[in-house]
Amino acid sequence: MNPGLCASCRHARWLTSAAGSEFVQCRLAELDARFAKWPRLPVLACPGHEIGGGAGRA
Ligand code: SF4
After folding, report:
1. Does any domain span residue 20?
2. How many structural domains compose the chain?
């Protein structure tokens, strides 16, 4: 799965389902309604993207 910009974003939190699927939770969504809590991947353009590595990537 290609997550696009979320792969390198400090606001991304990675979660894995029981079936082994990976999802990205955007932590910026808690602070700013412009962002989806569960962004549709791949994210190709995002004003909130900040380099820093996603947290919790398995
Ligand atoms: S701010 Fe954008 S690039 Fe970063 S985790 Fe959220 S949706 Fe992905």
Report:
1. yes
2. 1
Structure tokens given for 13 = 């939190």
Give, using CA atoms, the residue closest to atom 1 of ligand 1: 48
User: Is 17 inside any structural domain?
Assistant: yes
Model confidence, pTM: 0.85
Q: Ligand 1 centre from 46 Cα, in Å?
A: 6
Output the CA 22–ligand 1 centroid distance in Å. 15
Rounded Cα–Cα distance for residues 36 and 18 (Å): 22
Contact present, 1 and 54 (Cβ < 8 Å) = no
9-48 pLDDT tens trace: 999 999 999 999 888 999 999 999 999 999 999 999 999 9
